[in-house]
What does this fold into?
Amino acid sequence: MMDTEYWIDGAHEHAGGLEEAISYIHAKWGRPENLGFNRDAIRHYGKCIPRFFLLLQGERIIGCGALIINDFICRHDLLPWYACHCIESYERGSGLGKLLLEYAVTIAGALGFSEVYLGTDHGGYYEEYGWERIEDGYEPSGGRTRIYRYTL
It folds into this structure.
């Protein structure tokens, strides 16, 4: 997907290589002890999900996102989940997050899904892009998180 100088590319198609994509996503969402988990999750994808992708400006990675089966939330009956949403701090406020969200729901629709979910502690952001807060759910730690739905 192209938007003037910005480009969204799948982790497996990234010109810098899959390891660079894994390293970036892990640096944003992982911990030293779970690199193997993240590497395996990103490397092994099927015909449907998970799908990990990068937002690039030229050759520089400036963000990431993913469609996954479950985002460590109790609601295993809901899928797919949008996760790993990140825009570099120096690029925030310019609407680039919207590009990742639109890309994710477009991919979900192409895969035959009519809804996409996400869990977050951030209020107000996702509503700006058409996501609806539907309830709270629980993380494995016992903490609560907001669950949002986007209907395609």
Q: What stands out?
A: The CA atoms of residues 10 and 53 lie 4 Å apart.
